[in-house]
Every structure is written in structure tokens, then in C-alpha cells.
């Protein structure tokens, strides 16, 4: 259903090998858990809690999924499992919005998604505007769906 291929401008990417229906579970993010103070710069890391990261060596399928400001995948259940947000065509790149997982203050990354609604810079959840957080809330990880002062 999914395969890793090179993209023209983002390195590795994950692509649908067949049509995928909205709501389909795409990828269960995998790895080991680590606290912020034990992260290694060589690891791929997905923030899953205020001080908790799901880490890997970079060889998992989920490590190859790129960002998009208009994503076709998201954390619909709040767990680190990506689901199709809409029907996805065969050959289409799978992408999720990185802001829906990261709560680290000051974190940014230049965006290369090219969407009409591209934000140009991917930011930490708490540095998005309130309207953007409201729009993305249903596809964010659970820990970001609660007020920050409850962490």
C-alpha cells in the first residue's frame, strides 16, 4: 500500500502504491521512548509528550513521511498512528503536518511543501496562531490537544 521513493526536493518520501480510502490506518509510528535530555542528534525523533520522544535510527517507514501544510495524513485518534484524512490517489505522496506533533518552544523548519496554503515555516504547535491550532486540533497528538499549562 505504501513505498519509499526519492522526491525531487525533500529526499525520501512515502507514496501510495494504490488508492487509499479516507480513514485508513497508514502507519503506526515506531521506535523507542526517550526523554528530551537524552536525545541524540543522529536519531529521528517524534515528540509524543511534553518531555517524551519516540525515537529511531531513521529506518522506519514513518521516518520517511514528509511534512505538508495541507496534509493528507494525520493523527486522527491522537495517538502516533497516521490515518488518511481524505481519499489518497495511487502515486500520491503521503504527508502530515509536523506542527501537529511538536511542542518544543522555538523549533522551526523551512517548509518545502509547495501547497497554496503553505506557511513557509513549520513551527512548534504553541507558536501557531490560535485559528491554525483550532483547524489542526483534530489531527494533532493527544498531548497537544490539552492546554499547555496542564502539562
Describe the structure.
With 151 residues, the protein is mainly beta. The chain has a single domain, classed as SET domain (Beta-clip-like, Beta Complex), CATH 2.170.270.10. The chain contains one helix and twelve strands; from the N terminus they run E-E-E-E-E-E-E-E-E-E-E-E-H. The strands form four sheets. The protein has a four-stranded mixed sheet, with no helix packed on it. Strand 1 and strand 2 form a beta hairpin. The chain is globular, with a radius of gyration of 15 Å. The N and C termini lie far apart (37 Å). The mean pLDDT is 96.
Sequence-ordered SSE layout with sheet pairings:
Blueprint: E1 2-6, E2 12-16, E3 25-28, E4 32-35, E5 44-49, E6 52-56, E7 66-67, E8 73-74, E9 81-84, E10 93-96, E11 108-110, E12 121-123, H1 130-136
Quick rundown:
This protein has 151 residues and is mainly β.
What distance separates the N and C termini? Answer: 37 Å
The radius of gyration is 15 Å
Q: Structural class of the helix and strand makeup?
A: mainly beta
Question: Helix count, per DSSP?
Answer: 1
Shape: globular
CATH architecture call: Beta Complex
Extract low-pLDDT stretches. none
- For the record, the count of structural domains works out to 1
Averaging pLDDT over every residue, what do you get? Answer: 96
Give the key terms.
151 residues, mainly beta, Beta-clip-like, 4-stranded mixed sheet, 3-stranded antiparallel sheet, 1 helix, 12 strands, 31% strand
Amino acid at each position: 500500500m505504501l513505498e519509499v521513493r526519492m522526491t525531487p526536493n525533500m529526499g525520501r518520501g512515502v507514496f501510495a502504491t494504490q488508492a487509499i480510502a479516507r480513514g485508513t490506518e497508514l502507519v503506526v509510528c515506531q521506535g523507542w521512548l526517550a526523554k528530551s535530555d537524552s536525545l541524540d542528534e543522529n536519531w529521528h525523533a517524534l515528540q509524543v509528550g511534553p518531555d517524551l520522544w519516540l525515537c529511531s535510527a531513521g529506518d522506519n517507514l514513518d521516518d520517511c513521511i514528509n511534512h505538508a501544510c495541507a496534509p493528507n495524513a494525520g493523527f486522527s485518534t491522537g495517538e502516533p498512528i497516521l490515518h488518511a484524512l481524505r481519499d489518497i490517489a495511487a502515486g500520491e505522496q503521503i504527508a502530515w503536518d509536523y506542527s501537529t506533533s511538536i511542542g518544543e518552544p522555538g523549533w522551526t523548519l523551512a517548509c518545502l511543501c509547495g501547497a497554496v496554503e503553505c506557511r513557509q515555516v513549520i513551527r512548534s504547535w504553541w507558536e501557531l496562531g490560535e485559528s491554525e491550532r483550532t483547524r489542526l486540533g483534530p489531527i494533532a497528538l493527544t498531548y497537544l490537544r490539552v492546554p499547555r499549562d496542564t502539562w
